[in-house]
């Protein structure tokens, strides 16, 4: 276990440059979705390192930083079972020295959807990911498609700043009833957990409508919203049909396809989900 930047730098120096290095950054509270990323990293790299760091920069003042789950011993067991070669587990003080005042702002992809609902969130994401890339120096980094906007922001940052890291998206892992795996699912009350699969049901209904020939984004989004309207436990934040790369608004779902994206509160828990659609569907 590498508990600070100095230990990580020593490990990275000893590793040298001959082996292809895969990296899975996480905030812990690991589940099967994270494990699938580690398995994917193992397929694409010779050595795999993961990080666990609950990044305070990406939490707003009224969000769940203090109660975010931190089951570190269980996480370490999952990492060992997945065959991860090293774990970087830094402290906040080590990652952000006193007086730190430099941040990474992506000024387009980060603005809509969750960016509009959580101001400053993606600045925190981009800043910590770039710092981790600089420290770990991976050849390939794995991120989950469940956080589609996060993936898009990181891909844009890597492109714009010439960061020499290949970004790979791993597919969403779901429960049997369709609920996307998330570390925040543990917060759901039994009643909210019963309602949560409606998020995926709304995405699936819109995908069906698209396959049946509907390409108007607002009509498609309206179908998704109507699926959720029957649940009193779901407080919808957004239901949108967006360009899959820029996340900007589109006039119709064309050859590039689209990203179906939804965010909602169930009780005090905020959940997100998404589903890409395209001509191949």
From TrEMBL:
Major localization listed first in the record, in broad terms: cytoplasm
One Pfam entry for this protein is Pantoate_ligase
Please list the residues that bind ATP: 27-34, 144-147, 173, 181-184
Q: Which reaction does it catalyse?
A: (R)-pantoate + beta-alanine + ATP = (R)-pantothenate + AMP + diphosphate + H(+)
Please provide the Gene Ontology terms (biological process) for this protein: pantothenate biosynthetic process
What is the annotated localization of this protein? Cytoplasm
Any idea of its EC number?
A: 6.3.2.1
Per UniProt, the keywords (alphabetical) are: ATP-binding, Cytoplasm, Ligase, Nucleotide-binding, Pantothenate biosynthesis
* Binding-site residues, (R)-pantoate: 58, 150
- Quote a single Gene Ontology cellular component term: cytosol
Pathway field: Cofactor biosynthesis; (R)-pantothenate biosynthesis; (R)-pantothenate from (R)-pantoate and beta-alanine: step 1/1
Q: Which GO terms describe its molecular function?
A: ATP binding; pantoate-beta-alanine ligase activity
Binding of beta-alanine occurs at 58
Which positions are catalytic residues? 34
**Please, what other remarks does the record include?**
The reaction proceeds by a bi uni uni bi ping pong mechanism.
Output the NCBIfam families linked to this UniProt entry. Answer: panC
Give the UniProt family note.
Answer: Belongs to the pantothenate synthetase family.
| Oligomer status and interactors | Homodimer.
- Its biological purpose: Catalyzes the condensation of pantoate with beta-alanine in an ATP-dependent reaction via a pantoyl-adenylate intermediate.
Q: What is this protein called?
A: Pantothenate synthetase
């Amino acid at each position: 276990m590498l508990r600070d930047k100095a230990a990580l730098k020593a490990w990275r120096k000893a590793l040298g440059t001959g082996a292809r290095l895969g990296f899975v950054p996480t905030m812990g509270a690991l589940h099967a979705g994270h494990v699938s990323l580690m398995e994917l990293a193992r397929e694409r790299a010779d050595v795999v390192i993961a990080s666990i760091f609950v990044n305070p920069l990406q939490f707003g003042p009224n969000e769940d930083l203090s109660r975010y789950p931190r089951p570190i011993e269980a996480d370490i067991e999952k990492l060992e079972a997945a065959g991860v070669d090293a774990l970087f587990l830094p402290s906040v003080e080590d990652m952000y020295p006193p007086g730190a005042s430099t941040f990474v702002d992506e000024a387009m992809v980060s603005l809509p959807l969750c960016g509009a609902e959580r101001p400053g969130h993606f600045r925190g994401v981009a800043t910590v990911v770039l710092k981790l890339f600089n420290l770990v120096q991976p050849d390939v980094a794995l991120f989950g498609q469940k956080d589609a906007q996060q993936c898009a922001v990181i891909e844009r940052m890597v492109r714009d700043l010439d960061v020499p890291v290949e970004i790979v998206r791993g597919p969403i892992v779901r429960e049997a009833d369709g609920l996307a795996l998330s570390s925040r699912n543990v917060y759901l009350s039994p009643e909210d957990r019963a309602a949560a699969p409606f998020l995926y049901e709304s995405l699936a209904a819109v995908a069906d409508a698209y396959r049946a020939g509907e390409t108007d984004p607002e009509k498609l989004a309206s179908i998704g919203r109507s699926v959720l309207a029957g649940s009193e436990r779901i407080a919808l934040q957004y239901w949108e049909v967006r360009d899959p790369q820029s996340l900007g608004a589109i006039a119709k779902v064309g050859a590039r396809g689209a990203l179906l994206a939804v965010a909602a509160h169930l009780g005090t828990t905020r959940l997100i989900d998404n589903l890409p659609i395209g001509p191949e569907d």
